[in-house]
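Can anyone check this?
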Amino acid sequence: MIDVLRIARKVVSEEAEALRQVADGIDAAFEAAVRCVLDSRGHVVVSGLGKSGNIAQKIAASLTSTGTPAMFMHPVEALHGDLGRVADGDVLLVMSRSGNTPEIVRFTEHFRRLGGPVIGLTQGRESRLAELCTHTLFLPDLPESGPLQLAPTTSCVMMLAVGDALAMALLHARGFRSEDFAQYHPEGSLGRRLLLRAEDVMHKGDDLPLVRADEPFRDLIHHMTVKQLGLAIVVGDDGELIGTFTDGDLRRIFERVADPLALDARGAFERSRRESSAPPVRQSTVSPELLAIDCLRLMRESQITSLVVVDGAGRPVGVLRLMDLIREGLG
């Protein structure tokens, strides 16, 4: 197994060195390619054949998800009808190690016939593809890694790196923000963190355990039991929030008051506050528009497990619990 480890380390080292050379070789041609895409009115059509095609599919996906509309087009399918998908203003980003792959060359020739600019990614400085391209990004002329130096390895790593660099440069040039990324990835982890708000997760309507301040302690316990949120919300006559009465408050009231049933909801709330030595609660209410991830941060900072969501007048409209946020994958 010693040879296996030696080969693995050699492959990784060679590919790492290739990437260093790629980074050193990025020049004005790269800037021109970025400007070409920014000036275009259409999509970036990304193409390649074989392993280069696999890389092209990934780059097309990366461009699309970071603010640059793109699509992958197989060069052979393009020659048999898919050229009809090419529209005025489209740019071709084409990848080929040698730059002389017949299908790639023919596809590029026909794309140029339609009038669109072409950005080429190749090691072939004297290739036909280099002649056809409006802008050519030349990769270092390095052999493939591995014992036989036949399977596409180093060339694919270099193509992937330059494609990623192009996508990220375009992202920066367009002023693409994390919020924009979230719009394109609404169900991903980042998307949920940047889009999900308190109003999207809170318990509301008939699920709210609202108790008027003058209602008896027995009714307060009844609401806590029936609504099953681990708390009751004590409100005044006009619906404004007075405070919350939690399971922890219930334990404290029985420790402090001989006959809790003699209290009303307001009295129970007032007699069950935390000890002064307990960690201070920085904030126990939030607006419906606050990001859910910020609600989670508030709970952790104050060591509480729920927040009351209030409207502009300070009236409770929802309850947000720690377990609700964890269930949404934010914990």
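Reply from J.R.: I decoded it. The first helix runs from residue 2 to 25.
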